[in-house]
Design goal:
CATH architecture of the largest domain: 3-Layer(aba) Sandwich
Largest sheet: 7 strands, mixed
Number of strands: 13
Structural class: alpha/beta
Number of domains: 2
GO molecular function, one term: catalytic activity
InterPro entries: Aminotrans_V_dom, PyrdxlP-dep_Trfase, PyrdxlP-dep_Trfase_major, PyrdxlP-dep_Trfase_small
CATH superfamily of the largest domain: Type I PLP-dependent aspartate aminotransferase-like (Major domain)
Helix content: 25-40%
Distance between the termini: 37 Å
CATH topology of the largest domain: Aspartate Aminotransferase, domain 2
Pfam family, one: Aminotran_5
Shape: globular
Strand order of the largest sheet: 2-8-7-6-5-3-4
Organism: Limnochorda pilosa
Strand content: 5-15%
Protein name: Cysteine desulfurase
Length: 394
Amino acid sequence: MEGWVEEVRNLLPVTRRSIYMNTGTSGPVPEPALRAEAESERYLSEAGPGSAEALRESGRRLEQVRNDLARFLGSTPDQLAFTQNTSHGMAAVVGGMVWRPGDEVVTSELEHASGLLPFGYLRDRLGVRVRVLRPRDGVRLTPDELREGLSTRTRLICMSHVSYATGARLPVEAAAELARAHGCRLLVDGAQAAGCLPEPLDGLGADFYAGPGQKWLMGPEGTGFLHFAPGAWAVAAPASIAWASVEHEESPAGPLTYRLKASARRFELATISLALFEGLRTATQILEGMGRRTIWERVAALTGRLKEGLAALRDVEVITPMEAERSAGLVAFRLRGLSAPEATRLLAERYQVIGRWVPRPEAVRLSVHFFNTESEVETVLGAVGELTAGAGGS
């Protein structure tokens, strides 16, 4: 284990009690980030949260968070809106577009509920047609499959950067090219990529990219972001606005006169938790100290060994693509003779391996981040081997 990994592990109390492989649900928050949250709350309490000083200082600090987060993600401050989570960001885009009966959305069975439910709601309310594509291999949607699913009525493509269910990295760059060629927009669910994969957001070509703070970025719950391609924030108008969306909270021309901010900030409504986002900023600074490329190279090495070891076990089927360029930090697999919920429970109870299971396709899902270790991977392989031996003998 490299020295810098051990340094970060020392900041993560969970690593002292379990093998934590559930970052894809929620990443452990480093102790410095927890202290940053507490310091922010203490400052506001002492200064008076509604005082002129505190309001001015909170605004300044939040812009520092925006600057640092944009730099790490490969965005710019004007392209980044703060959200509560990935679902919040995706809903803001979907709710901000103008829809007419017969308009079409193209998505796939690989999506999280956040990439499916908003469109079922559009279908029922406005008569929007939703095409849910089924990958031929059940694991990864290809560019050709996506192309075949588009039509002249397609207004929006919704695609995960990494499927939460199969762990497959999906062809976002190719989808962006197809969207441009068909005159539609691309919305990306970045929940399982931001903080794990190395590509800068500006280089992906997506019109909209929603991500969480609490997963691979290892920030607090209740933080997230919505990235817009240059000028794309003018395409999807905010479904609702409030004082934080406009240039001046109180206009001399009257209470109903306003001018939307000329940036992604127009999608922010009102007060944003300084404490939560300063916690996110501190967590992001830790990641930035290592670099996106270094983080990804370590994740790729660890997941590569895990997939290789699982594939060598009898009665184990690895669902996630073996190739690093077709996957990320998630590893999904099945154990013959043992349901995914039961296998997940046994891994936690017997071996202190914390993961989760996913329903479509049913599988155990482990999330491997840079702070996991080679020895933890070997322990997991031994544990799965014992479980399969027990299942086979029952």
